[in-house]
Amino acid sequence: MDVKIEVENGVLSISGERTYHKESKDEDVHRIERSYGRFVRTFTVPVALDTTKVSAKMENGILRIHLPKTEPSQKKAINIQ
Fold first, then answer.
1. What are phi and psi of 27, to 5 degrees?
2. pLDDT value at residue 26
3. Following CA atoms 64, 23, 32, 40 in sequence, which dihedral angle do they give, to the nearest 10 degrees?
């Protein structure tokens, strides 16, 4: 499976293409068919997302995406001159 991940303007997009997979065995009928073709999924994510630290890992057919939040800005007192 070919997968592409993008994060832009608070939107996470996962797109890719599933390839055709068909398996059959002559002894005792055993058949596996899986859907195939292009797909796109989009998700709205928090605006406070640190896009420089986004990571993804595919293991055993499971896609895990880590979307770390940015540190909230600290309150700062401003002196008037």
1. -70, 145
2. 61
3. 40
Q: What is the Cα–Cα distance from 57 to 80, expressed in whole angstroms? A: 50
DSSP 47: S
pLDDT of residue 50: 85
User: pLDDT digits over 29-52, tens only?
Assistant: 666 666 678 989 999 987 788 888
Q: Which CATH architecture has domain 2-24+31-66?
A: Sandwich (2.60)
CA torsion 43-48-54-60 (nearest 10°) is -40
* Res 52: pLDDT: 86
